[in-house]
Amino acid sequence: MRVCFTFLWILWLTTPGAAQNPSSERQRSAGPRSGLAHALDQFKASTFRAHMAFLADDQLEGRGTASRGHELAALYVAAQFQSYGLEPTGERGTYFQRVPFREISVVPEQCELTLERGGKEQALTWGDEYLMRGHELNLDAKVEAPVAFVGYGVTAPNQHYDDYASIDARGKILAYLSGAPAKFPSEQRAHFGSGREKAKNAVAHGAVGLIVLNTPELAKSLPWDRVIIGYAFPAMRWLGPDGMPNDAFPEIRVTALLSLPATESFFEGASKSWDHVWSDAQASTPQAFDLPFAARLHNVSKHREVTSPNVVAALRGSDPHLKAEYVVYTAHTDHLGIGKPIDGDSIYNGAVDNASGAAALLEIAKVFSQLPRAPARSILFIAVTGEEKGLLGSDYYAHFPTVPKDAMVANINMDGAAVWYDFADIIPFGAEHSSLMPVVRREGERFGLKVSPDPMPEQVFFIRSDQYSFVRQGIPAVFIAGGFQAVDPGINGRQVFEHWIQKYYHSPFDDMQQPLDLKGAVKFMKLNFAVGYDVASGPRRPTWNRGDFFGELFSRK
User: Fold this and answer.
1) Half-sphere exposure (CA, 13 Å, Cβ side) for 98?
2) CA geometry: angle at 166 spanning 162 and 172, to 5°?
3) What CATH number does domain 118-303 carry, 1.20.1410, 3.40.1350, 3.50.30, 3.40.50?
């Protein structure tokens, strides 16, 4: 009976038109809209925590992409959207958009990275010295070629910077440092430091393989033993209508990542020492030179095809014309799933990352649904999958939206809901590039919040969450993070964050047992609601700033 009931419930959610709710009609035809202040009063820590606790529960097994646990999370989110009277806006009249994936699992014992120096071979050790993801196209991929070092691997004409200016990289395995030059503006640094941009640039210069070199900055932000755990989880790519994986680079036959000690010894016998290389890198000095050895890389993996859902719902706007446009809220529901045990715990619950953001999405959707009159523009709520695999669910949606792409006027993304302390400042990643920044400042002032610059540009947060998928499709976006300034002067926000990264990030300890202070979470929800309400109510859609780098690079034609 339990199985039959569950089946019927799922069938109800996935049947075209089944989730329509009369309350949505009442809401669209309601009287004058109430004040924003009244709406903000509806946010409560208790209901937020309840959503967060369910999504982070062990029974959901860490919500790994394409896992049973994530499917349950998606059903939960869809059920909440239905209870709010929101319109199903997925595929075929349901709340779901199924994203097709290729899951890629590396076979470590069959992989190889060998350096050939002066007739002698040096085989590096998996885990201690290097790691590989599986190849998105080839189950058994090999490359053997001379090696060249190309600094950060960045070409940025607008910053008058080019690591490739003095080298012929054709037919070579290219080694480059993780990250990008510190002299770049924070979010351009993040963009040029992304693996996608670097691989694309390497292909343009004729590379046949890649070796990503560790740095002290990277090693400090995430210990190598945690990187090893991360590489044990399968990689994924979404599949397009032609069956091809996204961001596939067939020219790059194998890619490897080195540990910091292996990176330091990588330059033995080279024309520059590691110390000299890192010094020039910190000074944002372009550099490139051939290394005195060749390398042989062998990458073996297994593939399977799976699917995982984005959950999509809409609140129809009240203006006869502007309701055709959408302000898009996103938060990812996936996490890592079940992995290597740490202190006997193998469930990577992802409570802060990102059950908290998904809980905020649900509460914001509920408050919007309860407004006596909807804002002028429609609001689209998307609980995306595959963020932990490389922003895949949001990227798929941005490529293949269930509403007209040109109708999406702005994205407000939530990844972590400020659950550690009550914050006094915010970092609005992405807002400075568009007319969203005045909105964020105006609504921030409502809560006594000041805007701070990115305090950790080396972490490239701008490209590490789902708003970047919408930016790349020319849609202005913002990801608001609580800043390091706490309302309580006795709290050092930077220390709290760095401790969380070291102990909790992508570990089984990111569960509901960790210290949480939900005053900040309530403020976080109110602020994100207010920003979206402001954008949805304004007479003009957000625009990119004149001459902005991202606006010109990605603006829709």
Assistant:
1) 9
2) 95
3) 3.50.30
Number of neighbours of residue 128 by Cβ within 10 angstroms:
12
408's CB contacts (< 8 A; 6+ apart) are 325, 326, 328, 380, 401, 470, 475
Q: Which residue has the tokens 């780098």?
A: 549
C-beta of residue 212 within 8 angstroms of C-beta of residue 176: yes
Torsional class of 179: left (φ above 0), alpha (ψ -120 to 50), beta (otherwise): left
Q: Are 332 and 393 in contact (CB under 8 A)?
A: yes
* C-alpha span between 176 and 195 (Å, rounded): 11
Question: Whose CA is closest to 329, among 356, 350, 357, 309?
Answer: 357
Q: Where are the domains of the chain?
A: 34-94+316-554, 118-303
CA triple 245-248-253, angle to 5 deg: 130
Could you give the CA distance from residue 298 to residue 50 in angstroms, rounded to a whole number?
Answer: 47
What string of DSSP letters covers 99-150? EEEEEEEE-GGG-EEEEEETTEEEEPPBTTTEE-PPPSS-SEEEEEEEEEE-
* Calpha distance 148→142 (Å, rounded): 18
Rg (CA), the chain: 24
CA angle 415/420/421 to nearest 5° reads: 120
Structure tokens at 174: 């290219």
Residue 556's pLDDT is 66
Kindly state the average pLDDT of the residues 241-270: 96
Whether residue 541 has pLDDT greater than 70: yes
SS3 290: strand
Residue 528 has pLDDT above 90, yes or no: yes
Q: Compute the residue count for the chain.
A: 557
pLDDT of amino acid 14: 40
What is the rounded distance in angstroms from the CA atom of residue 184 to the CA atom of residue 186?
A: 6
520 close to 418: Cβ distance less than 8 angstroms:
yes
Q: Please measure the distance between the N-terminal and C-terminal CA atoms of the chain and give it in whole angstroms.
A: 54
- Residue with token string 């690591």: 163
Contacts of 546 (CB under 8 A, 6+ apart): none
- Arithmetic mean of pLDDT, 453-459: 91
Half-sphere exposure (CA, 13 Å, Cβ side) for 291? 26
Q: Domain 34-94+316-554 maps to which CATH number in 3.40.630.10, 3.20.20.140, 1.10.150.20, 3.40.50.300?
A: 3.40.630.10
CA 443 to chain CA centroid, Å, is 25
Task: Tell me the mean pLDDT in the region 365-371.
Answer: 98
- Closest to 226 in 3D by CA, of 77, 65, 371, 348: 348
DSSP of 355-404: IIHHHHHHHHHHHHHT-SS--SSEEEEEEES-GGGTSHHHHHHHHS-SS-
pLDDT (mean) for 241-264: 96
Residue 435 has pLDDT above 80, yes or no: yes
Q: Give how far the C-alpha of residue 319 lies from the chain's centroid of Cα atoms, to the nearest Å.
A: 33
